[in-house]
């Protein structure tokens, strides 16, 4: 498996790589090639479950899963959390019907071209570096979760306070000091070709910590399913 060029996520028309994961929601392995020739697949590549945004994004994906399955689209959520730690989390926060996998080495993120961004004091060269001055100008809007649009650090702190998630050594092992793994969603057709994507790389940082647009996703899924 070769990684896609860094900072240049796979685009519609690109062939997705095969990546093999440890399954979280069942025993054994999951490979992207398992779906090739069988069904379209939505791959959600997240940070670890220590990220309060990602916990919510995974839960949102689980809510969309039944509608996607009606269109014949399978869904796979990939988190950087080590598999045993992730299994413990999902034991208490079930995601019925959603296939989940562990990738603490971030092999899938590299393979799909999702970069790790460095936080600096005031130097921004998106998507390799972002200054904290720019981060503080960004706004995340999560109606029902946040009282108002907030900058990502403040929003993350508030969401973390609302969750009973205790950071353990397994979480610290995959945390990146002064860096952040950017995430993305990729909708693959039956042949493993990307047909739609939504990543934090796009929009020069305005997508940072944002959830995907369900209407856009379902529209793309309708086209891929036929």
TrEMBL record:
Molecular function as annotated in GO: antioxidant activity; oxidoreductase activity
UniProt keyword terms in alphabetical order: Plasmid
Entry coiled-coil feature ranges: none
UniProt xrefs under PROSITE patterns: THIOREDOXIN_2 (PS51352)
Gene3D superfamilies xrefs: Glutaredoxin
Pfam hit, one: AhpC-TSA
InterPro entries in alphabetical order: AhpC/TSA, Thioredoxin-like_sf, Thioredoxin_domain
The name this protein goes by in its record: Peroxiredoxin
Source organism of this protein record: Sinorhizobium americanum
Lineage: Bacteria, Pseudomonadati, Pseudomonadota, Alphaproteobacteria, Hyphomicrobiales
């Amino acid at each position: 498996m070769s990684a896609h060029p860094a900072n240049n996520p796979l685009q519609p028309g690109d062939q997705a790589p095969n990546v093999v994961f440890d399954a979280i929601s069942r025993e054994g392995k999951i490979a992207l090639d398992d779906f090739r020739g069988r069904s379209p697949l939505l791959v959600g590549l997240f940070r670890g479950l220590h990220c309060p945004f990602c916990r919510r994004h995974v839960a949102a994906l689980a809510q969309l899963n039944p509608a996607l399955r009606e269109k014949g689209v399978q869904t796979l959520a990939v988190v950087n959390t080590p598999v045993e730690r992730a299994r413990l989390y999902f034991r208490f926060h079930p995601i019925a019907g959603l296939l989940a996998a562990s990738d603490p080495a971030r092999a899938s993120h590299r393979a799909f071209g999702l970069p790790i961004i460095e936080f600096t004091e005031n130097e921004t060269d998106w998507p390799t570096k972002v200054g904290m001055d720019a981060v503080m100008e960004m706004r995340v809007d999560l109606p029902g979760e946040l009282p108002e649009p907030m900058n990502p650090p403040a929003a993350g702190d508030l969401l973390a306070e609302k969750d009973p998630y205790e950071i353990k050594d397994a979480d610290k092992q995959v945390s990146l000091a002064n860096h952040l793994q950017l995430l993305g969603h990729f909708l693959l057709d039956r042949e493993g070709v990307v047909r739609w994507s939504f990543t934090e790389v796009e929009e020069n940082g305005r997508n940072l910590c944002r959830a995907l647009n369900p209407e856009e996703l379902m529209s793309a899924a309708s086209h891929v399913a036929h």
